[in-house]
Amino acid sequence: MPKICQITKKKSMLGQNRSHAMNATKKKFSLNIQYHTFWLPEKKKKIRIRITKKGIRMINKFGISKIYKKYII
Predict the structure, then answer these.
(1) Which domains occur in the chain, in start order?
(2) What are the pLDDT digits (tens) for 28-49?
(3) Fewest Cβ atoms closer than 10 Å to its Cβ: which of 33, 37, 54, 65?
């Protein structure tokens, strides 16, 4: 399963490590993805989603009901 946030749709990025001599080696920047369970009061059930820390902050700000309707459905 790819590391993609279900709310923000962010993916991991590719970049380069640079040494002191400016030699470039490829690097993958991974996301802070976690599984999190939320309770939906309208549907009276729990949902489990893969979400980044920024997505959790969005849910705390706007509420799970609004985010669920806008991004997940």
Answers:
(1) 13-72 (2.30.170.40)
(2) 999 999 999 999 998 999 999 9
(3) 37
